[in-house]
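Extended Data, record FCP1 homology domain-containing protein
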Amino acid sequence: MVEVVLGGRSTLYTVYKRPFVDYFLRKVSSWYTVVIFTASMQEYADPVIDWLDAGRGILSRRFFRESCTLLPNGTYAKDLSIVDQDLSRVCMIDNSPVSYSFDQANGIPIEGWYSDPSDEALLDLLPVLDSLRFTSDVRHVLGLKAF
């Protein structure tokens, strides 16, 4: 349960972790600086991120809806240049390709998750993320979209 306070009103939300997320975050944070960039409002996202991080300090920076660009169709896109000006070392995992439409060559698609306990999508990404550590420009590898 995560408590979200909006406009002085408290609401409890039930939040579930995607299978293997703790292992995934531990592993990936040993390779990279992990940044959360979400289209969610900060009031909702902060408690969820705190819960995921669990005091480990592995989620170094956070960007929320106010850092996104609202598109004419009502969706949000994320400009990765606010994370780092050098996009050769930046990748974004997102279930919405619109989210990385400004920086398509940096995007790594992942299926959305709702409740499947047998989901292994995060584990499937580990070899890709591991290999990206050894390239001078992640966009050269991600541009192949072979995953």
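Summary. The chain has one domain: 2-129.
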